[in-house]
Task: structure prediction
Amino acid sequence: MPVQCLIFDCDGVILDSVPAKTRAFARLAEPYGTQAMDRLVVYHIAHGGVNRYKKFEWFFREVLGRAITPEESAEWGRLFVRYALDEVRSCRLIAGAQKVLDDWRGRLPLFVCSGAPQEELRVILRERRLENYFGGIYGSPPDKAQLLTKIVAETALPPDSVLMVGDAVTDRDAAEYAGTRFYGVGVQIKSGDFPWSLDLTELNDWIAENIDG
Result:
C-alpha cells in the first residue's frame, strides 16, 4: 500500500525539544534529592510520548510513595511550562524536518500527533510558524494510541497507507495499535522491524520510494 498520509510526533521529531523537557523534569524532582531526580529523568526518557501528568503521577506514587493531589499536579504542570517553554519556543528543528515539511506540504496530508497538551502544542507550532503545514495538530488527552486511531479515522484512509513518524516506543506502539506504518527517528527507537534514521534527513527518500507502492 503506498503512503498517502504523514503523521509526526513533535518533540524529538519536528522540534529538538526533548533536552529542554528533560531538564524541566530534573528541576521538578531536584528538591527531593539526586536519586529521585535521576529516577524521574530515566523514567521520562524511557517513556517518551507519555503525557507529562502521567509522569508526575508515577513519580509521586513510585518515588515518594503516595498519590499526587490535584493541586500538586496542577502546580507541577505550571512549573514544567515555566521551566521548559522558553527553550522549546527557540530550540532548533530536527535535522531534515524543514525540508520534509516543505517538500510534502500540499502533496500529502500532514498531521501532528503528540503527547504534549494540545493547546500548548498548537501555540508553540503557531509561534514557530509551522502550524499551517498541518491539516490537524493533535495533543493529549487522550493517549497516543487513541489519538492516532482518531486521526486515521478522520482521514478515511486505510491505516496501512498512513505513516507515523516517531522517536519513542510509545509512538511505535501507537502505530501498531492503530494499524499504521511506522518510521523511527533517533537513538531511543533505533532497533525494530521498521525503517529508522537518526534524524529526518533520510525520510524524504524513503517516502519517495514508498509513495507509489
The radius of gyration is 17 Å. The chain is about 50% helix and 15% strand.
